[in-house]
Design brief:
472 residues; TIM Barrel; three-stranded mixed β-sheet; 17 helices; 32% helix
Length: 472
C-alpha cells in the first residue's frame, strides 16, 4: 500500500481550492479541497461569470444533466452581476433541506473534486468539519460521485461518516444522528438522505474513499476505531499550533497573558502509543519543514499534513490582495497569529491573523451589524414544542437569547461564514450596504514562508512548497 508523504491541508472556505489540490496531486502528493460551504462557492462563482468556465465544465460532467441545467439557469450570469449587487443567497440547511439545496450541494462538491482530479492520476482528498453538520451527508455523496480518493474529517468525532460512505457505494439511503442540545433519553433527531429517491435515474458505480479522522488526542483515536460505523483508514494528528479551528485544551480552560488558551501535557499525543495502534497516521501543526518531515518519518508516521505554507501559495484561494498584505508582514517579522477562544460560533478556539481591513480588528468588527444569513455553524436545540431549533451566537443577540442561548456566549463571536467567503473574493454586500470583510487564519509556523520566496518577490507555487519539503 502506497501512501502520500505530504497531505496538503483542507483549509477555510475554498482556500484549499481545486487549483491548489490539482497542483499538489500532479506532483504525486495528496491535494485536498475544502468541502466547507461549497454550495455557496459554486453559485457565487457562477454569479460573477464563472471566470475561465471551469465550474461550467465540471457541471457538464455531472452524472445528472438536468440538475446542472437547473443550476446554470438560475445562477449563471455570463458577464457577472453588478459589483454592488448582493449575491443571491441559498436557503439555510435544516433537518429537511429543500430538494434544490441538496442538488446544489451535491453538484458543487462533485465539481470541486472533478476539477481537482482533472488531468492527472494523483490522489485527491476532501476535508469536512463535523461541526458543520447538515451539508456533510450531501457533500460526501457529491465528492464520491467525482471519485474522491480520501475523505478527511475533524472538528468533532464523525463516528457515523465511515458507515455513510459504505452506504453510498451502492447509492443506498444513509442517515446521521443530529447533535441536539436538550434532548432526553430515547429522544433523537436524524438527517436522512436517499440518493435514488432524489435523482430517480441510473447512477454510476462508486468506489469507497479512504477515511482519515483528524484528531488531537489518543482517546479520540480509540473512540473512532471502536465506535465508528465503518472502517477508519488512518488518522491525522493535529496539534494546537495548526491554523483554523483548534481542539479546546483538555481540562479547565487557562489563559495566557494574551488571553489565548494554554495547552499542556494532556494535549500531547503519545506517538509510541499511536504507532502501537498499527494504523497509518500523519502529523499536522507546525511540521512544515524538511527537518521535521524527516523526524516524523523516523517516528513511524506516513508523513505530514501541511496547511499554512500552501495557504499563501499562488494556487490557493486567498485573494492576491490578502497575500500581498500578509507576506511582507511575515518577512519582516510583524505577522501576528492569535488563538482566539471566542470568535468562532463553534465554540472551538480559532487561529486569527491580525490584518487591517479585516474583522480581526475591533473597529471593523464593531462596524458590522450582526446577521446570520448562511448558518453553517448554527447549533441545534430541542424547542418546547418538540421540534428542532437552530441558533448561532454570531446572530443578533436578542434573537439568540430568545432561542434559549446564554448572553455570555455572544461575546466576541464573529460570522465566520461571511468572513471566510470574503477571504476568497466572494464577499456579500448586505442590505445596509456593508461589504463583508475577511478574517484570515494561519498556523503558528508562518515563519517558514520566507524560505520559499525568490528574487525578493512575494509569490511562490505549490510545487515550490513540495520541493522545499522534500529536499529537492
Amino acid at each position: 500500500m502506497t501512501y502520500p508523504v505530504i497531505i496538503q491541508g483542507g483549509m477555510g472556505v475554498n482556500v484549499s481550492s481545486w487549483k491548489l489540490a490539482n497542483a499538489v496531486s500532479r506532483e504525486g502528493q495528496m491535494g485536498v479541497v475544502s468541502g466547507t460551504a461549497m454550495d455557496e462557492v459554486l453559485v457565487r462563482n457562477l454569479q460573477i461569470g464563472d471566470p475561465g468556465g471551469h465550474y461550467r465544465r465540471a457541471l457538464d460532467n455531472f452524472p445528472v444533466p438536468e440538475v446542472s441545467k437547473k443550476i446554470l439557469h438560475k445562477f449563471y450570469i455570463p458577464d457577472g452581476k453588478p459589483e454592488n449587487e448582493p449575491f443571491k443567497l441559498l436557503p439555510k440547511f435544516t433537518i429537511n433541506p429543500p430538494k434544490e439545496l441538496q442538488e446544489i450541494t451535491i453538484a458543487a462538491n462533485f465539481a470541486e473534486v472533478f476539477l481537482a482530479k482533472e488531468g492527472h492520476d494523483g490522489p485527491v482528498g476532501i476535508n469536512f468539519l463535523d461541526k458543520i453538520f447538515f451539508p456533510n451527508i450531501f457533500s460526501i455523496y457529491g465528492a464520491m460521485l467525482a471519485g474522491v480518493d480520501y475523505i478527511i474529517m475533524g472538528a468533532g468525532l464523525p463516528l457515523e461518516v465511515p458507515g455513510v460512505m459504505d452506504k453510498f457505494t451502492t447509492h443506498s439511503e444513509a442517515s446521521m444522528k443530529v447533535p441536539v442540545k436538550g434532548v432526553t433519553n430515547g429522544d433523537s433527531f436524524h438527517l436522512r438522505f436517499d440518493p435514488k429517491k432524489l435523482f430517480q435515474t441510473s447512477l454510476p458505480e462508486l468506489k469507497r474513499p479512504r477515511f482519515l479522522g483528524i484528531i488531537s488526542t489518543l482517546i479520540a483515536a480509540n473512540i473512532l476505531l471502536k465506535k465508528s460505523t465503518g472502517k477508519v483508514d488512518g488518522f491525522i494528528i493535529e496539534t494546537h499550533t495548526a491554523g483554523g479551528h483548534n481542539a479546546p485544551p483538555r481540562g479547565k480552560m487557562v489563559m495566557n497573558d494574551r488571553m489565548e488558551p494554554v495547552y499542556g501535557d494532556r494535549d500531547r499525543v503519545d506517538i509510541e502509543k499511536m504507532s502501537a495502534l498499527d494504523i497509518p497516521f500523519w502529523l499536522a501543526g507546525s511540521y512544515g519543514t524538511p527537518e521535521k518531515l524527516k523526524a516524523v518519518l523516523d517516528l513511524g508516521a506516513k508523513g505530514i499534513q501541511v496547511g499554512t505554507v500552501f495557504a499563501f501559495s499562488d494556487e490557493s484561494g486567498f485573494t492576491r490582495s490578502i497575500k500581498d498584505k500578509i507576506i511582507p508582514k511575515i518577512i519582516n517579522g510583524t505577522a501576528d497569529v492569535f488563538t482566539d477562544p471566542k470568535c468562532s460560533p463553534s465554540g472551538f478556539p480559532f487561529k486569527v491573523v491580525s490584518l487591517e481591513g479585516s474583522v480581526s480588528e475591533n473597529d471593523e468588527y464593531q462596524q458590522r451589524t450582526r446577521t446570520c444569513d448562511m448558518g453553517y455553524l448554527r447549533s441545534f436545540y430541542k424547542k418546547e414544542d418538540g421540534t428542532l431549533g437552530y441558533r448561532c451566537p454570531a446572530e443578533p443577540g436578542t434573537l439568540y437569547i430568545k432561542k434559549g442561548g446564554k448572553p455570555e456566549e455572544l461575546e466576541g463571536r464573529k460570522c465566520l461564514c461571511n468572513a471566510l467567503l470574503a477571504n476568497i473574493g466572494l464577499a456579500q454586500r448586505q442590505k445596509d450596504g456593508y461589504l463583508e470583510m475577511p478574517l484570515v487564519t494561519a498556523g503558528d509556523d508562518i515563519g517558514s514562508i520566507p524560505q520559499l520566496l525568490k528574487n525578493g518577490g512575494y509569490t511562490y507555487s505549490a510545487k515550490d512548497v513540495l520541493e522545499y519539503l522534500l529536499g529537492n
